[in-house]
# Entry
Amino acid sequence: MKKILIANWKMCNKSAAEALNFLNVLPSPQKKDVRIAVPFTLIREMAGNSLKIRIGGQNMHSYAEGAFTGEISCMQLCDAGADFVILGHSERRHLLGETNEFIQGKVERAVVEGLSFVLCVGETLEERELGETFDIIQSQLDSAFEDLSEEQLKTLGVLIAYEPVWAIGSGKSAEISQICKVHDFIKEKYPLPVLYGGSVTLENFEKLIQASSIDGVLVGGASLGAATFGQMIQLLPEG
Ligand code: PEP
# Structure
């Protein structure tokens, strides 16, 4: 299976011109699976780029439409050119109060409207220290995928990103052995590609991407520089 490299630009300060300049200096990924999840305002600008890098959103609402000031619908993401969306990122779970139930609604919406997604799961440091890692991850997955068949998830190209909350933006990536234990646990329950996210840098990229239980990486901070992201594209194995 091809390894997958996804950038998560979060609420970065890139203007449309800066985002296009970023694409202009990247090496061609050729047939590699490279994607960038961008702020809403950049989707239309970046979708359909000549490098064939897939462009996605970082969030969407669970309702098809409605009076939800500041939110965006699945249809609007697709209309702008997004071909995937990140759901359940820990910054949304923990800083913005998104519950498993709300995320399940988003998953259902994406399935109904046929938009592929990356479901993020992961434990906090406190949960890890209490020995609750596997229970937390199982409950996040079971809730999100309630009533969905393995076939539906595979057809839609759903990915899971294991992102321990304590490793995100902290400069403290999880150990490969810790990551693989969790990935193997996830794959046993849901046989889908599982990416790792949490302080991935150019320094730890190759080791992570070579581990057989790690199907790809979701990169936040380190994906904002074109030189670094370009090197990651070059280091990503072909197939
Ligand atoms: C993320 O945004 O999902 C992430 C993993 O961030 P960082 O790489 O900066 O830790």
About this structure: The longest strand covers residues 4-8.
